[in-house]
Design goal:
InterPro entries: DUF6152 (IPR046150). It holds the Pfam family DUF6152. This protein is of the alpha+beta class and 149 residues long. It has 3 helices and 6 strands; from the N terminus they run ααβββαβββ.
Length: 149
């Protein structure tokens, strides 16, 4: 009886594999694998590009440094669905909109083609401040994320 059950299970798994059914990947990086909690950043500038892709969206902006020089940055946010649930939409992220993104710089500190950061909060021109990060990945908590409470 056990042998028949084992053969049936192998046949089902083999049949699924043969049909090309793909299973979703569950791997994900932790905050501390890529970003440094000791390197907070506050980026202010116009949006230059938005990538609504999984597993993380990316907001690109042109930040002006204290010396007046400009630098390209890209801030990682939660999934597009997460951003939508928190009130961040395609319409609120229009190219040219001046925003402020607070977050944490990447550990590699490479800025080619742009510096990278894990975005924590985004502040819009009207003063609205929304949490743009993904919770539960090890980013420092400050209470602004409703999922942390």
């Amino acid at each position: 009886m056990k042998m028949k059950l084992l053969v049936a299970a192998v046949a089902v798994v083999g049949g699924i594999a043969a049909m090309g059914v793909k299973t979703p990947a569950t791997a994900h990086h932790a905050f501390s694998a890529e970003f440094d909690a000791n390197l907070p950043v506050a980026l202010r500038g116009p949006i230059t590009r938005v990538e609504w892709i999984n597993p993380h969206s990316w907001i690109h902006l042109r930040h002006t440094n204290e010396d007046g020089s400009e630098q390209a940055w890209m801030a990682e946010g939660g999934t597009p669905n997460t951003l939508l649930r928190r009130g961040i939409t395609r319409n609120s992220l229009q190219i040219g909109t001046e925003i402020v993104v607070t977050g944490y710089q990447s550990k590699d500190r490479l800025c080619t083609p742009a510096c990278r950061a894990n975005g924590r909060d985004i502040t819009f021109p009207d003063g609205r401040k929304l949490f743009m990060g993904s919770s539960g990945i090890g980013a420092p908590q400050d209470g602004s994320d409703p999922d942390e409470r």
